Amino acid sequence: MAIDIQLLHTPLSLQHCQDWVAGAACGGIVHFVGTVREQTGGRPVSRLDFEAYEPMAVSEMRKIAETVKKRWPAERVVIHHRVGKLEIGEIAVIIAVATPHRVDAFAACQYAIDTLKQTVPIWKKEIFTDGEVWVAAHP
Amino acid sequence: MEIEIMAFGIARDIFGASALKVQAVENSTVKQLLEDLKNQYPKMQELRSVAIAINTEYADLEQVIKPGDEVVIIPPVAGG
Fold this sequence. Notes:
The complex is a heterodimer. By secondary structure, chain A is α+β, with helices and mostly antiparallel strands. Chain A has one domain: Molybdopterin biosynthesis MoaE subunit (Aldehyde Oxidoreductase, domain 3, Alpha-Beta Complex). Chain A has helices spanning 14-21, 54-71, 102-119, and strands at residues 3-8, 28-35, 39-40, 43-52, 76-82, 84-87, 91-99, 122-128, 131-134. In chain A, helix 2 runs antiparallel to helix 3. Chain A is elongated, with a radius of gyration of 16 Å. By secondary structure, chain B is an alpha+beta fold. Chain B has one domain (2-74): Beta-grasp domain (Ubiquitin-like (UB roll), Roll), CATH 3.10.20. Chain B contains two helices and five strands. A five-stranded mixed beta sheet of chain B has the order 2-1-5-3-4. Chain B is globular, with a radius of gyration of 12 Å. The N and C termini of chain B lie far apart (37 Å). The chains are: A alpha+beta, B alpha+beta. Chain A binds chain B through residues 34, 50-53, 55-57, 59, 81, 92-93, 113, 116-125, 134-139, and chain B through 6, 8-10, 13, 46-48, 53, 56-58, 72, 74-80.
């Protein structure tokens, strides 16, 4: 299978993703790596808490990877997402797409992260020094 | 019939529990369930969006909820 979907409670490995997607047929590999930023709107962030409706999160991530395979000549697609408590700088998500040429890898990777943010049932709470907020919950 | 609903994220905070049981008439739709929940928990109306998943798939508003379905409230998602 050319798709690797994982929802992990442990740190994500960029090297694992690179090793998994790389192949002789592919001249372009694009990784998107989402990390925990130290501030939001100037307000210092202490950490992020991620949670997921796990069976559906995995199936929705799989749908994204399958769509990538249909729309672009992608040989391999990796989507790994972390859940639990993450500190500043830790990796929350890795998407890796390998295609014969770079244009498709960039487009497919962009599609995958944009869609993940819209459809995959994962939630994050920003913990500030003086409070906390569920990200994107309110208009 | 009784429907058991799971809640994540801000929906769990609004309900004050990760699961709750509600009474619904037979052949209730997703739309009716959402309306009932928004009436019972007005803070739900302040959210950017609220969807329902049935058996790990996003449900249409007209979908009928059957006994034994796994019903989950999906407040605005924020992965990545």
